[in-house]
Amino acid sequence: MTFKTVLKGAVAGCAVLAGTQAALAEGHGGVTVGYFLEWPMPFEFAKVEGMYDEALGMPVTWVSFDTGTAMSAAMASGDVQLSVSQGVPPFVVAASAGQDLQILDVAVSYSDNDNCVVREDLEIDKDSAGELAGKKVAVPLGTAAHYGFLKQMSHFGVDIGSMEIVDMAPPDGAAAIAQGSVDMACGWGGSLRRMKEHGNVLLTGAEKEDLGILVFDVTSGPAGWVAENSDTVAKFLAVTAKANAMWADEANHAEMLPVIAKDAGMDEEATMATISTFIFPTVEEQLSEKWLGGGAQDFMKGVADVFVEAGSIDGAQDSYADNVNIGPLQAASEM
Q1: Rounded to whole angstroms, how far apart are CA atoms 98 and 186?
Q2: What are φ and ψ of residue 276, in 5° steps?
Q3: How far apart are CA 139 and CA 198, in angstroms?
Q4: How many Å apart are CA 159 and CA 130, to the nearest integer?
Q5: Which of 117, 147, 153, 287 has a beta carbon 3.0–4.6 Å from 199's, enabling a disulfide?
Q6: Does the pTM exceed 0.90?
Q7: CA–CA separation, 7 vs 13, rounded Å?
C-alpha cells in the first residue's frame, strides 16, 4: 500500500484553514498550547507552577494530543496557537502541504525514545530484518516514528510495499502488539516502553544516528500568529529555557520530578527512566549551526524527500528555511 491517501487526510484542509487561525485567535484572552501526555519534560514544572501565565501576563490553556499531525490540524484551525514537542516529520508533512508553520525552538532530542519494536515471538533482529517483508506494522503516519520506520526499512532493504501498514497512534500500537494483532509497532514515550515489554528494537538510538536518523521535536506555531505575537512567543520560549536550565541542575530534581511525573500522567520511576534519555539543548546550542542555524532546515528537506520517495506526500519544498523563525528565541535569550 502507499501512505499518500492517509497522509492527505491527516492534513486535509490545513492549507485552507491556516489563513484563518489568526482571526480565530483574536479575542481569545490567552494562549492555547498543545503538548503530549506520557512525554515528561521540564516545561511541565513551569506549566504546573504557573510560570508561563505569570511571564505572559495571560492565561495559558494546555491541550494534550496523541500525535504531531493532530497538533498541525489544531494549529490550522486556530484552536491551538503553539505546540510544544511537535515531531519534525509531522511538521514537515504540514509545511509541505502548504500550512504556514514555523519552528521556534528545539524542544528535545531523543534518538533512544522513538523506535519500532518487533514482536518477540517472531525472533527477528537486525541480522534477520529481511523477514519483516509481508508483515503487519502499526505506524503513526506522518510522525517521527513513521520517518524512522521508512529509513530503517530502507536500510534493511525491506520493501514497504510488501507490508501491511496500519495507521495507529502509539497507545493503540502498543495495545495491538501486546494482543499479537500486529508484527511490529512504532512509537515513543510510554507507548514505546509498553511495546518493548512484548518485543525488541532493531536498532539502538546510536545506531540510528549513524544512519542519519535524527529524532528531535520542536516548539511550533502558525507564522501569522507568531508574527503578530512575537513578544508573547519570546516570553514563552524564555520560560521553557528557564525550566530546562533548572532541570540541568540535579539539585532541582527532587523538587521537579514529582510535579513533572504527575503532569505527564506517569509514576516517578517511569518518568525518570524516560526523561533521562532526553537531551534539552540550551538556547545557545539551539541557535548553533547544528540546529536552527542550518542543520534543522537541511534535515527537514531530507525528511520531505524521503516521504516523497515513499509516496507519502505529493512533493517537497525546495527549501524549508522560511519555516524556521529564530527571532523570538534570540529575543528570549536576552530576557
Answers
A1: 27
A2: -70, -20
A3: 16
A4: 9
A5: 117
A6: no
A7: 12
Burial, 157: exposed, middle or buried (Cβ in 10 Å; 0-12, 13-18, 19+)?
Answer: exposed
Helices first, then strands: H and E counts in the chain:
18, 10
C-alpha cell at 199: 518485543
Provide the pLDDT for residue 7: 52
Q: Residue 229 has which C-alpha cell?
A: 505575537
Q: How many angstroms separate the CA atoms of 81 and 285, rounded?
A: 25
Long-range contacts of 257-262 (CB under 8 A, 24+ apart): 259/44, 259/45, 259/48, 259/49, 260/40, 260/41, 260/42, 260/44, 260/45, 261/40, 262/48
Q: Residue 40 carries which side chain, given as an amino acid letter? A: P
Nearest to 36 by CA among 163, 133, 169: 169
Query: Pick from 153, 149, 185: which is nearest to 168 by CA?
Result: 185
Q: Are 259 and 49 in contact (CB under 8 A)?
A: yes
Q: Dump pLDDT digits (tens) for 187-230.
A: 988 899 999 999 999 999 889 888 878 889 999 999 999 999 99
Q: Mean pLDDT across the stretch 237-252? A: 98
Between 113 and 186, whose confidence is greater?
Answer: 186
**Residue 280 corresponds to which cell in the numbers above?**
534539552
What residue type is assigned to position 292 of the chain?
Answer: L
Q: Which of 315, 113, 111, 75 is nearest to 195 (CA)?
A: 113
Query: Up-side HSE of residue 93: CA atoms within 13 Å toward CB?
Result: 37
pLDDT at 110: 86
Grid coordinates representing 188 are: 515513543
pLDDT tens per residue, range 282-322 = 999 999 988 999 989 988 998 899 889 888 899 999 999 99
Instruction: Please give the Cα distance from 318 to 267 (Å, whole number).
Output: 44
DSSP state of 2: -
